[in-house]
Design goal:
- It is a single chain.
- 18% of the residues are buried.
- The chain starts with 7 loop residues before the first strand and ends in a 6-residue tail after the last strand.
- It is built from three helices and five strands; from the N terminus they run βαβααβββ.
- It is α+β, with helices and mostly antiparallel strands and 91 residues long.
- Strands 2-1-5-3-4 form a five-stranded mixed sheet.
- 26% of the residues lie in helices and 26% in strands.
Amino acid sequence: MSQDASARTITVRYFASIREVMGTGSETLSTTAATVGELREALRAAKGDAAAQALAPSKAVRMALNQDMCKAEAVLKEGDEVAFFPPVTGG
């Protein structure tokens, strides 16, 4: 199966400390990323040093696709919603 290189419009939501770093809670963008993991890397490259640190592979960042927890391999399609957030800690 070949990967689709055409752009798709998606909504990206950021939560907690990632939201602080990104300076927004959500944004709509056009991406050629085929998976959530590729989107994470594209955001790291496009958003500057602080975002690159917040979304770094070494960071424990949880990801959701259309409000379902997902792995980096989850495939993106037009109109999807992706969320990035740090792990939740209990008290």
